[in-house]
Design brief:
There is one protein chain. The protein is 70% helix and 3% strand. By secondary structure, it is mainly α. It folds into two domains: 360 residues, no CATH class; 142 residues, no CATH class. The strands form two sheets. Strands 1-2 form a two-stranded antiparallel ribbon. It is globular, with a radius of gyration of 23 Å.
């Protein structure tokens, strides 16, 4: 069996993953400069090179892991796990840790140190999660794991990119058409050219010919082309250990670390459903080490196993796309070339690939679970939809110069059940798994299992992991502590009691 380092379809996979990573870098540059007041020297000279070290090492590891699996299973169709900057953590750290610290202190370097500390602790939590990850996978139905991913894919991935495509149809529709023809119809283009490469080339040409590449289309910064190599910054993290800031924001850091562990488990399960069974312990351990390495070299943002493995696999990508992505992201982060790329290539030219990735993940949730579990998959979508809806509401209010804290929940009483939306959004990745798991066990008439999952939800509600929140000037914040969401805890306990009673009733009838 020969498992080549590169295949032609790795080019398509590379373009899709690189564009996704580029979007994260755009967000980092924009948020760090605008919301955290960081100078170019810190953003381009420290943070991006630090992130690049993690991205490179992680992509190389997962490419090597694919090689090991290919050799062990004697197969040449193994696809490496995708890897990059964690989008959810990026938003959480910026809006709930770094921006509040900057608003209080106006010290961008203190903000940077706090971000590194958060990234470091998140990585440690992920490494500890490797010890229990496989056990958690074994007790969680596949429908629950894949449903959660599908909810995230259809909202935070597909919907966002779909809106961007329909915002600029003149330059986005033709690239999208090439993507759909390539992957829906399995058409081979002349000379064997990858559909992703054609899409980006055509989209870029249209954007320039039609005048869409004016200054208003450029999401960039004042960074200049120069070589910036990473350097060790671990001493700056030590400065904040046991500080008031760490104690103040530990309630954000710990849940995000746990969130990342669960998200990575779901991605590993998704890869297995697509045919590639990776070792849970080594995958999670490498995931956590990547975030720790990122923080030690100056990055504030954890890296993670990406959503989308089934999509890259369906493209025909193997391990080369991961290696290409790692070296490409390293090159542009070390040199500042990211600003040049964003001046030349419109994002709309390549986001059709990411839209397709989201579509594949949603389809997989239904295709790779038993047919009669479809309702469980469907119910698991709702928490992610609520989370996306809250993001839209919050974004609209901020664009109007206000916040949910200022207008208050009463402003929505005749339009949106905003309290229910926020409650469902808090810890939505856990809620999605729980609701889907309960549904699976009810479908299978395993009422005691459903009761146990309900008790787990009651506990998580009681301590504030799910559903509990408070409105603050910085936005919606989780509320932790005993009795944080006692009403939900009571509700889930009623679930548990009812399911246990039905189990007793069913057994009694059999006897």
């Amino acid at each position: 069996m020969r498992y080549p380092l590169f295949v032609k379809r790795d080019i398509d996979g590379f373009f899709g993953l690189a564009i996704d990573n580029l979007i994260q870098l755009i967000l980092i540059v924009s948020f760090c400069k605008v919301l955290c007041g960081m100078p170019d020297a810190l953003v381009f000279g420290v943070i991006l090179p630090g992130a690049a070290i993690s991205i490179l090492s992680g992509n190389i590891f997962y490419a090597w892991q694919a090689k090991i699996l290919a050799t062990k299973s004697n197969r040449d169709d193994i696809t490496a796990l995708p890897y990059g900057i964690n989008t959810v953590s990026l938003f959480a750290f910026i809006f709930f840790i770094m921006h509040p610290v900057y608003r209080d202190t106006k010290d961008p370097y203190l903000v940077w140190k706090m971000g590194m500390l958060a990234c470091f602790l998140s990585g440690v939590i992920e490494m500890l999660g490797a010890l229990v990850g496989e056990s958690l996978r074994r007790i969680t139905p596949r429908a629950a794991l894949l449903s959660t991913l599908a909810g995230i894919a259809i909202t935070f991935i597909s919907m966002d990119f779909a809106l961007k495509i329909f915002e600029k149809p003149v330059i986005a529709f033709v690239p999208l058409a090439f993507i759909l023809v390539q992957y829906f119809s399995k058409i081979r283009f002349p000379l064997g050219l990858p559909g992703g490469l054609i899409a980006i080339g055509v989209g870029t040409g249209l954007a320039w010919l039609l005048g869409y590449m004016g200054d208003e289309s450029i999401v960039t910064s004042d960074g200049v082309f120069h070589l910036s190599l990473p350097h060790f910054c671990g001493g700056d993290i030590i400065d904040l250990v046991q500080s008031e800031y760490m104690l103040r924001y530990i309630s954000v850091i710990v849940p995000m670390g746990v969130f990342n562990v669960v998200g990575s488990l779901q991605n590993i399960e998704s890869a297995e459903a697509a045919g590639d069974k990776y070792n849970t312990f080594s995958s999670l351990l490498a995931n956590g080490i990547g975030s720790v390495v990122a923080s030690l070299f100056g990055s504030c943002f954890p890296t993670t196993i990406y959503i989308g493995h089934p999509g890259w696999k369906a493209m025909g990508a193997r391990r080369g796309y991961s290696i290409l992505n790692g070296f490409f992201m390293t090159a542009i982060c070390f040199t500042g070339v990211i600003t040049i790329i964003l001046r030349l290539v419109p994002i709309e030219a390549g986001i059709g690939i990411l839209l397709w990735i989201g579509i594949v993940i949603v389809a997989q949730a239904f295709q790779e679970t038993p047919k009669h579990h479809a309702m469980a998959v469907a119910i698991g979508l709702f928490p992610a939809i609520a989370a996306w809806g809250l993001l839209m509401v919050d974004g609209a209010l901020r664009s109007a110069g206000t916040t949910l804290f200022i207008v208050g929940k009463d402003a929505f009483k005749n339009t949106i059940a905003i309290d229910g939306m926020i409650s469902l959004e808090r810890g939505f990745i856990f809620t999605s798994m729980i609701l889907a798991s309960i549904s699976v066990y009810l479908i299978e008439r395993q009422f005691l299992q459903a009761s146990f999952w309900s008790l787990g939800a009651a506990f998580l509600s009681y301590v504030g992991i799910i559903h509990a929140y408070e409105l603050t000037p910085n936005g919606v914040m989780s509320k932790f502590g005993f009795g944080a969401a006692a009403d939900f805890s009571i509700g889930y306990c009623s679930f548990a009691i009812l399911f246990a009673a039905i189990n007793f009733y069913v057994r009694l009838k059999k006897d």
